């Protein structure tokens, strides 16, 4: 009886191991395309179902990758649009800061006066004459700074100056950020 149990122990152990590894063995046999043992050679032709299964799996993987890539592309386009908007905003802020560094206090007064509506250049000529730089800095140069900075424009019909929308926003920017409007000259 001891011999029978000893003789059956190894085959039973092998069957238990095969049972535990049955899924892995099935997967291995599915992937097996040829087999050689003891002079016998077997070439397996992959089944149509196996090919279709692989095709569907690869299709799903590809669809998932495309979906992920589309999401990334959409996010990049959104970031690009936001960057363009921010770029315009920061360019305007840069223009305002640069203008503020260069503008005379009397020119800021002209902008504040123009907030109330268009005014003839005779008033601005008198403001210019009262600045210490009037002898060095001509009236045309004085007003051209405001014109070339697009803060004011001159109406050809009645020869009056008026505040542009950019000029209005420039004054708003200074006031909102508590930047002093009282500068020298």
Present the secondary structure layout:
Elements: H1 2-20, H2 22-31, E1 34-37, E2 40-43, H3 48-102, H4 105-114, E3 119-120, H5 121-129, H6 139-148, E4 152-155, E5 160-163, H7 165-176
Antiparallel strand pairs: 1-2, 3-5, 4-5
Describe the overall structure.
- The protein has about 180 residues and is mostly helical.
- Among the domains are: about 50-100; about 105-175, Arc Repressor Mutant, subunit A, CATH 1.10.10.
- It has 7 helices and 5 strands; from the N terminus they run ααββααβααββα.
- The strands form 2 sheets. It has a 3-stranded antiparallel sheet with strand order 3-5-4.
- Strand 4 (about 150-155) and strand 5 form a beta hairpin.
- The chain is rod-shaped.
- It starts with a helix and ends in a 9-residue tail after the last helix.
What key attributes describe this structure?
Arc Repressor Mutant, subunit A, three-stranded antiparallel β-sheet, 185 residues, rod-shaped, 7 helices, mainly alpha, single chain, two-stranded antiparallel sheet
């Amino acid at each position: 009886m001891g011999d029978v149990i000893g003789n059956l122990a190894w085959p039973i152990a092998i069957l238990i191991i095969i049972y535990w590894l049955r899924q892995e063995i099935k997967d291995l046999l599915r992937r097996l395309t040829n087999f050689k043992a003891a002079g016998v050679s077997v070439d397996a032709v992959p089944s149509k179902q196996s090919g279709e299964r692989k095709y569907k799996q690869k299709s799903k993987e590809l669809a998932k990758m495309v979906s992920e890539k589309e999401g990334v592309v959409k996010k990049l386009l959104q970031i690009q649009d936001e960057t363009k908007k921010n770029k315009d905003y920061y360019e305007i802020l840069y223009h305002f800061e640069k203008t503020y560094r260069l503008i005379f206090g009397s020119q800021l007064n002209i902008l504040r006066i123009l907030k109330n509506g268009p005014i003839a250049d005779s008033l601005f000529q008198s403001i210019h004459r009262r600045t210490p730089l009037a002898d060095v800095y001509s009236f045309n140069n004085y007003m051209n700074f405001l014109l070339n900075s697009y803060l004011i424009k001159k109406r050809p019909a009645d020869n009056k100056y008026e505040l542009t929308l950019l000029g209005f926003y420039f004054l708003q920017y200074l006031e909102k950020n508590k930047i002093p409007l009282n500068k020298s000259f």
